[in-house]
Design goal:
The complex is a heterodimer of chains A (740) and B (119). By secondary structure, chain A is α/β, with parallel strands linked by helices. In chain A, 44% of the residues lie in helices and 11% in strands. Chain A folds into 2 domains: 131-540, TIM Barrel (Alpha-Beta Barrel); 551-738, Rossmann fold (3-Layer(aba) Sandwich). Chain A has 29 helices and 21 strands. In chain A, the strands form 6 sheets. Chain A has a 7-stranded mixed beta sheet with strand order 15-21-17-16-18-19-20, sandwiched between helices. Chain A has a 4-stranded parallel beta sheet with strand order 6-5-4-12. In chain A, strands 1-2-3 form a 3-stranded antiparallel beta sheet, with helices on one face. Chain A starts with a helix and ends with a strand. Chain B is an all-alpha fold and 119 residues long. The termini of chain B are far apart. The model of chain B has no long low-confidence stretch (mean pLDDT 97). The chains are: A alpha/beta (740), B mainly alpha (119).
Chain lengths: 740, 119
């Protein structure tokens, strides 16, 4: 095997499955063999043919869409619009969103699939920018752990909120633990901020029952499928789902449905249709049953879609379809779709820059192993990457940086609050040592003192004694958690006022509803649409890792020493053993340590020792008139008795120069300062000595590596150069002594 | 100013009242008038289906939690015969839940045709 292919085979991307398109199995993104041609026939005010099927042939999905989902008043007119023409309008900033969603409401699933199929990747970004319902983008977190540990759940929920997530979804490895998880996450979220929506994803009826008790504030696990067989395998029909949707609304609980391309193929029931056409049926059905929003973009089957050509594009097209049907879009990017960091980033990135109602329908805010939905496309390990991406593009991806101090304080408060609630309500004894471990844990594996029976017993008590969110609020208040009690109560009152039932509703931290109604997306070209407030922009721009010149100055000052003594003005010397080491202006003033972490005085020791090995005498001269290494090295050479000089910038870059050469035509150069070792500086001293004696130098290789050395150090270099420039006085060169 | 299902004014739903045990789940449930208001907002915003959902929901506010869960169960595939679905529809209509009754009648029809009824 050639070395090149052996290396290529070892890359993570080759752990991913890639499928040869198989239309007969539904393994095709667009244009399945049995995708119908769009059509509609209306007689006596009802649809008698849709997408090539007569009313008698309708399956239950067709029937529900035809009966409830299509604006019959405009259907014939909008079905006659050329699909390519309509696709162009989706990306045209001067075509208002309102008119487009109005027209789309009269289109059939096959028509919608045909329209969206015309958009390429860049056009999907434009369409999403314009068509999403809510102007302000947001993000959702998964908060779970392997042991349903309520202390860790509460601490992690508070942490997720501190990082900016406005919706939290939890689930359970053990179904019976669900009520305990719902309480722990709701309390933890309330510690983090007001207005955080909380969901506990379990079986449909169980989820509604928890919602009725106020233990959660929205629902999402209401699955739709694109073929009747798979729908029924999911133990529902369009009618039961429509009723369930109303059941949630009847209790004032926000709800969205879940679908996603590839699910039918994965479950062996795609009926030879493409993933995108079947998803178009799901989204049309979501609208028809009166759901306010859809979580799609593959979801659990994202990697099925990603296995076929155009599949990742189809995932994003699913999201745009939801937006076009005037619904809230929770845009996937949850289940990890690739082993490759590059592919999984590529999958999310267009949606990230376009902005959606929820970029991820589950950013794994815990470590991957604790995510009981399975690893997400984005996880706790990636939060700093995501924050850096927001900063790079000036994009609001819904997250913000948080200080360690704040996180520690919130985690402590969250564990105290949940302990108090569990104790007060007789749900269980959460010990102090357990709580302490939860505060400092990176994941459930770090917690030795967790009692796995507590969540099970707590859940049984919640169900058997009819504990509701009212009891949780009372427990919080009785134990001095007044702020958290008020925040939990606000979430209950929200379901009385009902404004958050409207499309794409979230709450800001002051309990204002942001939705299609109160915060409509008004994108109409450059300079319009969502703009972060100055405060929000500062959150996006200011990440904890950024350093300023003054930060670096402080860092350098920690290494300040009295190693350097000025002996006086430096003179030209005629000693045939003399080699001058010219150092930059900040040496011994403001810069004390090189980028490789060596003290500048140690570097000079090595250079001097190398010269000594070759029988030369080194003199250290600080050049005060230039920060340019070539000029410093040449100036040193011109002062030296041998005509050979070494130039050294305090950050560690070094070269050898000779008197008669041009400034940039130096001899040996160590350009990669962060990688230069003491041994290499010694070698430079030796080689300078050899040049001085007219001998052949030892060959030196610059220490290149595959690290992103420029990414690591270039910002420091800019600051260190600025410090050098401040020290550059133009004064005459000074002779220095290295004092030990 | 919105009111809870029980008729309570939202201003009266306070932490202190909860501590005193004066607040029940009916106080923190949505009132059908509020759902009708939200239905009108949804219609104004171009989503008559969402409005329809809110109106079906308004009818269900008067039903107990258990009843709502039972009705959902009855509509799941192969749980009910067409006749049973029609009977439920009649009962719903008699309790003022016209829109939900309509949903059950449609289901009776479609389930029989598509074999989703109880055999």
């Amino acid at each position: 095997m050639t070395g090149r292919f052996r290396l290529m085979d070892q890359q993570p991307v080759n752990l991913d499955g890639f499928a040869t398109p198989a239309p007969e199995l539904g393994l095709v993104a667009f244009h399945g063999t049995r995708d119908p041609v769009p059509s509609i026939i209306i007689q006596n005010g009802s649809i008698v043919e849709m997408d090539g099927r007569s009313k008698e042939e309708f399956d239950s999905i067709d029937e529900f869409i035809a009966t409830h989902g299509i604006d019959i008043g405009i259907a014939e007119e909008v079905m006659a619009i050329d699909s390519l023409q309509f696709a162009r309008q989706l990306v045209d900033p001067y075509e208002p969103r309102d008119g487009l969603v109005h027209k789309a409401a009269g289109m059939t699933p096959a028509k919608l699939a045909e329209v969206l199929g015309h958009l390429n990747a860049a056009e999907l970004v434009m369409a999403m920018t314009k068509l999403r319902a809510r102007k302000t983008p947001s993000n959702q977190a998964h908060v779970c752990n392997r042991s349903d540990d309520p202390l860790l759940l509460a601490a992690d929920a508070a942490t997720a909120v501190a990082f900016g997530f406005r919706e939290i979804e939890t689930t359970v490895p053990v179904l019976a633990d669900a009520p305990s998880n719902a309480v722990a996450v709701s309390v933890g979220a309330a510690v983090g901020s007001a207005g955080v929506l909380v969901q506990c994803s379990v079986e449909e009826a169980a989820e509604l029952a928890m919602g009725m008790r106020g233990l959660v504030s929205y629902a999402e696990t209401v699955s739709l499928y694109g073929t009747e067989q798979i729908f029924v395998d999911g133990d529902d029909t369009p009618w039961s789902k429509a009723f369930l949707t109303s059941g949630y609304a009847s209790r004032g609980i926000k709800m969205r449905v879940t679908s996603g391309g590839g699910a039918e193929a994965l479950m062996g029931g795609a009926e030879q249709c493409s993933m995108f056409y079947l998803e178009s049926r799901c989204v049309a059905l979501a609208r028809a049953i009166g759901a306010q929003g859809v979580q799609n973009g593959g979801i659990d089957s994202a990697s099925v879609a990603a296995a076929v050509p155009g599949g990742v594009r189809s995932l994003m097209a699913e999201n745009v379809l939801v937006m076009l049907l005037n619904l809230e879009a929770c845009t996937g990017n949850d289940a990890l779709m690739s082993e490759s960091d590059i592919r999984r980033t590529s999958r999310t990135h267009p949606i990230f820059i376009a902005g959606s109602d929820f970029i991820c329908s589950g950013f794994g805010s815990t470590q991957k192993y604790d995510n009981m939905f399975g690893p997400s496309n984005w996880n706790m390990e990636d939060i700093d990457d995501y924050l850096a991406m927001q900063r790079d593009w000036g994009v609001d991806g819904g997250l913000r940086t948080a200080s360690e101090e704040k996180i520690e304080q919130l985690r402590r408060r969250a564990t105290e609050a949940i302990s108090a609630v569990y104790s007060w309500l007789g749900l269980g004894d959460l010990t102090e040592s357990w709580a302490e471990q939860a505060i400092y844990a990176a994941g459930s594996k770090d917690i030795e003192d967790a009692d796995l029976m507590v969540p099970l017993n707590a859940s049984a008590t919640i169900m058997n004694t009819n504990i509701t969110m009212l009891d949780v609020i009372a427990a919080l208040a009785e134990n001095g958690f007044d702020v958290e009690a008020e925040r939990c109560l606000d979430m209950l009152k929200a379901r009385v006022t009902g404004d958050y039932l409207q499309t794409a509703a979230i709450f800001d931290e002051n309990m204002n509803v942001l939705s299609l109604v109160t915060d409509p997306n008004d994108y109409a070209g450059p300079g319009t649409g969502y703009k972060p407030s100055a405060e929000r922009q500062a959150e996006i721009d200011t990440i904890r890792q950024q350093v300023s010149v003054s930060d670096l100055r402080v860092e350098q000052s920690q290494y300040r020493s009295s190693d350097f003594r000025v002996l006086g003005a430096a003179e030209i010397c005629h000693d045939p053993r003399d080699v001058v080491i010219g150092v930059s202006p900040a040496t011994g003033r403001d810069i004390w340590r090189t980028l490789s972490g060596m003290l500048v005085s140690d570097v000079l020791d090595e250079l001097l020792a190398g010269l000594e090995e070759e029988g030369c005498i080194g003199r250290v001269v600080r050049m005060n008139d230039s920060i340019d290494l070539g000029v410093i090295g040449l100036g040193a050479a011109r002062m030296s008795g041998t005509g050979i000089g070494i130039g050294l910038q305090a950050k560690g870059t070094a070269l050898i120069h000779r008197r008669e050469l041009a400034p940039l035509a130096n001899l040996d150069l160590y350009s990669v300062a962060p990688s230069v070792t003491p041994r290499l500086y010694r070698l430079m001293g030796i080689n300078a000595g050899r040049y001085a004696k007219g001998m052949t130098p030892e060959p030196v290789r610059n220490p290149y590596s595959d690290e992103a050395i420029e990414a690591r150090y270039h910002t420091k270099v800019v600051s260190l150069v600025a410090i050098e420039r401040e020290c550059c006085t133009g004064d005459a060169p000074e002779l220095l002594e290295i004092v030990r | 100013m919105s009111k809870g299902y029980s008729g309570i004014n939202t201003d009266e739903i306070t932490v202190d009242n909860i501590r005193r045990g004066d607040i029940t789940l009916d106080d923190i449930r949505i009132h059908p008038d509020t759902l009708e208001h939200q239905a009108q907002v949804a219609e104004d915003k171009g989503n008559p289906q969402l409005a329809g959902n809110f109106r079906r929901a308004a009818e269900l506010t008067g039903f107990l939690d258990e009843e709502v869960l039972q009705l959902y169960e009855a509509l799941r595939p192969n749980r009910s015969t067409a006749q049973e679905l029609q009977a439920i529809a009649q009962d719903l209509a008699s309790r003022g839940a016209q829109r939900n009754a309509e949903l059950f009648l449609q289901a009776a029809d479609v389930y029989a045709r598509r074999g989703l009824d109880k055999k």
